[in-house]
Structures are given as C-alpha cells and as structure tokens.
Fold each of these.
Amino acid sequence: MGGVGPERLSLNTATVREQWGLAQCIDGCARHGIGGIAPWRDKLHEMGVAAAAKAIREAGLTVSGLCRGGWFTATGTLGQEVIDDNRRAVDEAAEIGAACLVMVVGGLPDGSRDLSRAHALVEEGLARTLDHAREVGMPVAIEPLHPMYAADRACVNTMRQALDICDRLGEGIGVACDVYHVWWDPDLYDQIRRAGRERLLAFHVCDWLVPTRDLLTDRGMMGDGVIDIPRIRAAVESEGFGGLNEVEIFSALNWWRRDPDEVLATMVERGRISC
Amino acid sequence: MGGVGPERLSLNTATVREQWGLAQCIDGCARHGIGGIAPWRDKLHEMGVAAAAKAIREAGLTVSGLCRGGWFTATGTLGQEVIDDNRRAVDEAAEIGAACLVMVVGGLPDGSRDLSRAHALVEEGLARTLDHAREVGMPVAIEPLHPMYAADRACVNTMRQALDICDRLGEGIGVACDVYHVWWDPDLYDQIRRAGRERLLAFHVCDWLVPTRDLLTDRGMMGDGVIDIPRIRAAVESEGFGGLNEVEIFSALNWWRRDPDEVLATMVERGRISC
C-alpha cells in the first residue's frame, strides 16, 4: 500500500481542537505540507466564514468536508430551527468550497426508546436538507457512527444503513466512511463496493485503541490501534475515491494535550507508514 | 407486553459476581422466586460441577445457559488447549442441564489487525466444538457482542453475521440474543425473524445507559436505559422462543456494589415493568 504523503492528508480541526483555532490550523497545514482541512462549524464561526474561506483558499488547501450538519432527533420533532441550521450548514460548506457536508444525524430523542421514530426523523431531516443542498450543488455525506453512539449521537450506524437511506433519497447524498466507526463491520467491504465512487464522499482515518478508556475521546493516532487502515483505504480507492485522508482524532487523554505541531508532524509520519 | 414474572427470569451470575458465589446465587434465586440461573464457568468450577448440578436441580431452577465457551482467537492459531477447553465447556453445560453453551468467540489475536483471519479462526473453532456438542446434544449459542468489543472480546458483532455462520455450520448451533449488544441494529428485527425458533437459543436482558461511562462494566438494570426491551422480547417470543429472560448486568459502578438481595429484588420488579 505504501501509505500516503502529507498532500493526501486533511486535518480535521477536532484533532487539535483544544489547542488551535481555525486560523492556526490553516497555518499549521501549510507549515506541514498537509493538503487539506476539514473545519468544525464552531471553529468556522469563531473565525468567520468569509475570512476562513479566504485564508483556506490563499493557503491552497482542499476542504475535505465541513463538520457537521444533522442532529435531527434531539427534540423528537423536526423543528424549523434544525432545518434552518442545516440549511446554513449547507451554505457554509459551499462558501468554503467543501467537498461535502458531513452529517451526524442524531441519536434517540431525549427520554425516548423509539429507534424507529428516530430513524424516521433522520430520514426526513436529510431529505429536507437535501432539497437545499441540491440547489447549491453541495454533496451531503451521512457519517455512520459506531454503534456505541446510537443512543446519544447518531442512530445511523452502518454503511449498509446509510446506503439504504441514500438509495431512498436519490442523488446528491452519499457517505462519509470513517474507519473508526466501521472497521469492525463484516459487511464493510461489500458496502464500500456498493457505495462506489458516486456515494463515497469522504474518508476519515484514526485508530481504535485497545483498551479504549472512554467512549468518545479515546481515539488513537493511525498505527497505534488495531484498524487495518491500508486495507480499507485500498477498498475505497479501488472504487475511484480520490478525496483526501481526513484525520479526525478525539483524544482528551493524549493528542489534545500535546503541542499541536507535534500532533501534525506525527500525523504526517503515520500517514506515510500506517495509512 | 406486560412484563414478565420472576419465574420467567434467569439470573446470570455475572450480575452479582462481586458479591456471591454460585451456591448463594442458587439460594437467592429460590428466595426471590426467580425461575432460572446461568452460571459463569469460574463460579461453576469454584462450587464444583457435580455439586452445582445437584443444587440447581434441587432448587428446581432452569439453566438458561452456561457462560461461556469460545475465545478461539487469542493466540492466532487454534490450539489444542482451546479446543479441549471448549469440549469441557460442552460437557459441563450438559452436566448442569443448560439450555445452551454461550460462546463469546474472541477478538483479534494479540498484535493482529487481521479481522478476516480472526473470523476464520472463530468459524473453525465453532465447527470443531460443534462436532462434540452435537454428540452430547448440547446446543451452541453464538453471542454476537456489541461492535465496541470487536477488538478484544468477540469479532462476531451482529445477528446477521452470527446467523451467516450458523447457516454455514448447520444444525445444533444458533444465537444468544442479548439486547445490550444488538438493540442499535436496524437489521435486528429482520434477523430475529430469520433466526426463528430453531436458532434462537437464549435471550439476555439489561439496559444501555446514557451516558455509558465504561465500555465493559457500566451496563444498566432494565428500565434505567434506552433499550426498548418489550419490543425485542415480543419479536423473539413471536418466533416461538420460550426460554427465560436472562439478566446479565456488568456494573462495577452500581449493582456490583449493592446488597445482592436488593439487586435480585430490583431485577424482579423491573422484570414486571420494564421487560
């Protein structure tokens, strides 16, 4: 496989979210030769969308995605507020030239055990966001999250489930394949083939640590865990996916405590040997 | 749905594993009117298999399962030791009159990222165990574990995957459906139907807490989390499953610290209202 050079990596701002704002992330990418960036919206808003778009453009960075739209389920009904917020997310993604808007769809409504209802809310929310996204020409990427997040973050938890939704909703929607969420799935490679180039909109990398000490914030740097990243990357690329390898690491116990330049240098090194 | 009476519950000894040995569990079940028990092998060995079989019989308890066989992958080859140990587990299950031997199949071999290899080891191990289990007439139940255990406990993580294995291996093998591991799966109800009466060998209940503070030992009492247990139970029972509702709660932070009689009383109460 041979790994990837830094120009094939993208920095998801979550990886250094405790250390850097977006402007610093953009400078850091330029300094380390990293080819792209994927901002979270809080960081984007802090910097200002127009200023960020300009700085990203001037730094010559690709935007592998905007994180995140979605979160359709929290109140148990699909309110105008969440629809409007997703509409704004689409527009922001367009303004910064993102390859896609990544959707974390939301888990069970507060106090609910009704997963079917949550699934229905998610699909309706995606459909309504997609109406606007198609007008703007912004691809919408459903990110299936690991099943351990089904209750409180996203009730779309496998590639199969995400692609079933895509099939029902039609054009302009696909998946963000994050190895952390899907590596365990015996169905993964079949579903990557099913997705094909048209539905594969983003590819995220990090690693699954053994042991994992926290459900949310103990993700590993590529190479420090058990995920066969080269195999998954090869499968995605053999479908024609040509996007960047977006590095998104939630790590309260390790990487969020380090010098961010060390984090980026490590990420570049591991891109070469562990992706 | 209406919940279930204590005679329809089974106590998995893991639920009070820090407080009670098997003899105390047997007495506790009798005292609380609980219909069955499911020992873990360490507790069974401590008491002695023959003594346990006699005490369980005299208490009139059903044995909903023996936990656990499996663990085929640890060394990366299927050694005679693990084959022999599973053979012994089959014999122990038969000796105590268990409804099935529950299999936790094992995760990735130490230092490996090769999930396909792990899957192959598991299937070979199950096949070889099944040879003996069929002779003895002991049903083998694959327990798909939650995907968050794929690396270090079990690389069979969905009902679909378990049933695919069952289809390849033939008679005498089925699944243990534990709501904690499968509740999130959009494919769950289809796979329960697919399993049918013949492949549904055990039904385990507890609850998924939000937040979950530990990957292994923060399971909830029925009713304290987000799992729609009555719906899953109804699906299993509509296939003709007539076994007990086995309560298996790993809870270092809560139930393992309580008076075990309080745990059993709560379990009985929650059986009535939250199952």
Note: The interface with chain B takes residues 108, 112-115, 119, 146-148, 150-152, 155, 157-158, 160-161, 164, 183-187, 208, 210-212, 215, 225-228 of chain A (CB under 8 Å).
Amino acid sequence: MTDATILTIDALKERVEAIFRRAGLNAVQAGALAGVITAGERDACKSHGIFRIEGALRTVKAGKVRPDATPELAPPDGSAIVRVDAHGGFANPAFALGLPVLAERAHALGLAALVVNDCTHFSALWPEVEAVTAEGLAAIVMCPSYATVAPAGGTRPLLGTNPFAFGWPRRDSDPYVFDFATSVAARGEIELHRRAGKPLPEGWAIDSEGRPTTEPEAALAGAMLPFGGHKGSAIGTMIELLAGIMIGDLTSPEVLDRLGSTLLAPMHGELILAFSPEAFAKGRPGDPIARAETLFEAILGQGARLPSQRRFAARANARAQGIAMSSQEIAQLDRLLAEGLDAVAWD
Amino acid sequence: MTDATILTIDALKERVEAIFRRAGLNAVQAGALAGVITAGERDACKSHGIFRIEGALRTVKAGKVRPDATPELAPPDGSAIVRVDAHGGFANPAFALGLPVLAERAHALGLAALVVNDCTHFSALWPEVEAVTAEGLAAIVMCPSYATVAPAGGTRPLLGTNPFAFGWPRRDSDPYVFDFATSVAARGEIELHRRAGKPLPEGWAIDSEGRPTTEPEAALAGAMLPFGGHKGSAIGTMIELLAGIMIGDLTSPEVLDRLGSTLLAPMHGELILAFSPEAFAKGRPGDPIARAETLFEAILGQGARLPSQRRFAARANARAQGIAMSSQEIAQLDRLLAEGLDAVAWD
C-alpha cells in the first residue's frame, strides 16, 4: 500500500468511536462498537472491520437499534445464569457489562451462562470468546441470525447462518478460538460472487424452487445450505433452540419478520457458556491447560493449522507496527465522521 | 422375516441382561448395558443393538473394563458440576447414578454438568440425551473416542470420531434428538465397504501418506476425515478439550495408546450438559417448549425431517407389536448365554 497511513490501534479506535458518537450513539454503545471494529482491522479481518460501520449506522437510522440504550444487569439470584437486558442496544456493551459476573459465577460454580436479551448482535463472536478465555475460562458462544438457510432436506429459508464459536484459554499463547457460520458460506460471500459475476461452488445454495443452484442471483432469492449436510443443519437448529427460544428471544424467522431486511444488523439474543477447566479437572490427574498444549502441538506437528492463527499473527503485527489504512479508507472514515447518519441511506 | 420370533421389549432386555450376568458383569453393569442394547433393537437401530454384545464381552475379556465396578457419586459441593467415578466400569450405570443429581442441579441453577470419569463408553449418546430430556431439560452430550480422524489439513489420525449429541424436551412428542459422529462417516461404515468390496465415496478418508483415497483398506490404514471440513474438525477438537482434557480424562490419542486397538470399546470420560428452558426463559415472553413446536412445524412443513424421527417410529411399533428377531439372532443370543466370555476371542 503505497498511499497507506499507519494508525496505532488506539488511534483507529478513537476515530471509529468519534464516528459513532457523532451519529448519536451514547458513550457505552460507541465505545463497545469501536472496540470490535478496531479488533477486526487489527486482526486483518477486513470483513469485520470499518466495512461494518455503515451497516451499524444504517440499523440506527432504520430505528431498529437504540443508539442511547444503557444495558442493565439483572440482580444476582444465586443461579448459574447471568442476565443482561441490552434494552434494544447493541450486544457488545451488554456483553461487557455481564462478563465480570459471568466469570465470577463460572469460577465459583464450574460453569455458568450469560444471556444477553433484546440486543442487536454486531460483527463476529470471537471478541466475546476471547474475552471469556482471558478470564481463564473456556467458552461456547452462539446466536441466531435471520432466516436465510434451508434445513437439510428442506426447500426454503428458515434457519439463520447461526454462528457457533468456541474458545480455550492458553497460558503463553493466544487462545484456541474458532467462530464459524453453520451455513456452508456466509451470505456476504454469495453477494461477492454476484458482484464479480462468478458462479457459486456446488452445494452452497438452492433456488426459490428448492433446486441446487450455482447462480448467485438465484441463491439470494432462494436459500443457503447448512455446512456438513444434516449435521450442520442439526447444529443450526440447536442454536435456534438454545440461543433463541430457550433464552426467550427471537428465532431467525422471527428476526427477519421483525426487520424485514437482511441489510440491517439482526436483533435477538445471545448465549455465552463459560467453563472453568480448573474446577472441572479438580482432583483429576494432570493440568488441563498444559495437557491441551500437547493436543495443539500434535495438530501443528502434522502440518494442520489452529483456527484463528492468521488473525493472531496479524494482531501481533498490528501491535508492533500499527494498522495500515489506505487513503480511500481514511477518506471513508473522514466522510462518516463529517456526515454522521446522513452518510447512509435507509427508507 | 418369515422365521421371526417376536419378543417384547422387556423379554429381550431380560435375555441380554442374562448374557451379561453369565459373562461376569455385576447387576448394575449388566442392567445398564442390557438397557441400551435393547433400546437400539427397539428403535431399529441395528448398529447399536445385539450386534454390540460381543464388543462389550471382548472388552471385558481383554481386561479393559471392570465388569464388577460400582460407580460412585462424589459428595455434593454446591457447584454446578456433578461427578461420577465409574471406577473402570461402563459409562451407562455411572450416568444413571448421576442423572437425578444432574437434573436437580440443572433445575436449581439453570444449568449443570455431569462428568463421568474412568468409564468405558458404550454404544450411542442418544440414550443419555433422551434421559436428560425426560427430566424436562435440554442436553448436550459429548465424548472422545480413539484417534482415527485426521484434523482438517492434517495427514494422520489424531481426533476421535467424537460424537456430539443434543436433545430438547417436548411435551406431547418424543424429544428433538440428534447424535452424530464428527467424522464424515463412522468407522464401521468403512469396514462395511471393505467387506462388500466397494469403493468409498470421495471425501471420507486419506491414506497413510495423507492423500485422498476411496480404497477402504487404504482408509483403514490411513485416517478418516472430519465432517464439514475445518468446521467439523474444530468441533472434534472442542470435544477433545472439553470432554477429554477439561474433565481430567483421556483424549482420543491417549485412549488408543491405552487400548492398543480400535476393536475394544473406548475408555475415557463423558460430559453431559443440562439446561433448564424454564429457568432460562424466566421473565421473558413466551413458553419455550411451545415456541419450539413452531420451529419443528416449520421444518416439517417444508418436507425436511427431524433427526431421530425414524427411530421414534420404530419405537412406537416395537411398543405396540414387540421386536422381531430372526432365528439367526435368537441363536446368537442363545450361544452368547451358553458360552459367556468363551464366545469371544481376545489376545
């Protein structure tokens, strides 16, 4: 990038936060959103970086997320469930509010759950997973999305791309983290094929009649397919049940009904499970954190990668050398700061 | 089946239990094993039926499971973790011992975990899942296996076929249940292709050099592949971490080292998570059990099936009409009863 501007991670975060403040988000919403967007850029995960700012602003402009919401932690009830009501705001500050209590409960009881209700989920799940692993806990995180995926054997959109994410804490390394859609591909990948005029790989999608298609337009009018056939479909359904219905929040078809569009960030709930390896392994032979390293070494030793390896390498690089932003990206940030909600269309 | 003998479910269970008692299993081990084997026949799930008796006896004869073990429940410690030490016996009676305490804890805390240690896992995970759903709880159950699956991008066996199972309670129907291997295929399916002299479908396995193969012999000498590429591989790894390492029990490579064979039932631990939908949904709009029915209707309404549907249909049939066993199967049961451990070879 010959025209690159190098920003520190903190400097980028300040710029993104200023954009959200200018667009009317309160401090807690703007700070949390700027944090995850900056984390995406830091990790060279461009699809979760500043590219997402306009989607967030569009959702605010459409009136589908409350920019001034203050998340609220439910009073402790002695159970293993920690609840945060996002009050219609973004999930990210609600998660941040619940995290310390989740960690305390998981260390005390061995496992605990954080339920975030009435939130607009924004961006990936790995920021949540990593925050839990930083507390010395393993994590499973999931949430519904909007109905764009047909169940295996079905013909119409019903499930969401329902991400499933997991993390395991490591002592001297970045955590073991994965975070993936339970559809074969993300909806954005189909959109990218459409723009490029390229056919889709086989097995990604069906058309509106339920027939396999490699046409991006037909796929967008039809449905995406779950990863791994009936197995991925079952996991996607489990996510609707646990992270939608069980926590008393919306399922993917209900989200789509409520929003009327897949161009806005989805509103629903999120389920975060935290496990204390120390508590689970108590009284048993071996240190679980050390034993896990043996497994990771065996995976790496046969030439396979650990998930998120590339992200962590980019992160180390960004910490040492800053983040390179193109002049086009800098101009985009300047424009968003200058125009606020006028920068995006919604009607 | 023209030569079929019709047995009631209870009559078959008595016969199987007698075989295990004759082979030296104590009452608690024999009863639990007979229960799951009879459940397999009842559900027309032949691969988990009486076919499995010899494998259990072979594992006893090899000295890799204690036929006289009495599982022991750890004293309650107020946490969300319930622990049962199987003391080297089968997992099934240990699970049965822990289940009521797991249910009590999950109803009290919202979620809880049952850890079974030092057990030989036997047969499928759906019996455990169904037993948890019968308590009005949702369940996730997982355990390692032996190292027969290469991680995505790898070349050698490391992960197990690591089953992942889930259940959701329903009021007026059999529960929603899935239970699948995180490999593309079960090892037994490759063995069946070998015996039939048929090539494997593409994508099931790699040879001992890490190259894709459709030769069953080469696959058995090489490694199976995870379902869904890197996503299934990640879930298989999660199961090693949570249901092996975290609970202080063996990973799949350690199991294979310990047993030296994939012909014996695997010894390790098992992790059962139980969730109370009632507790999670408390204070939120809607009844989760009723809302789930809307989701199931939408799946069925587009011609897709719910997992386990065929099993439940066979079960209803067996309850009404008994279980048809061929004369060959009856002869096999008679022989096993007469010969006890002499019926199987192990050295």
Note: Chain B touches chain A through 71 residues (CB under 8 Å).
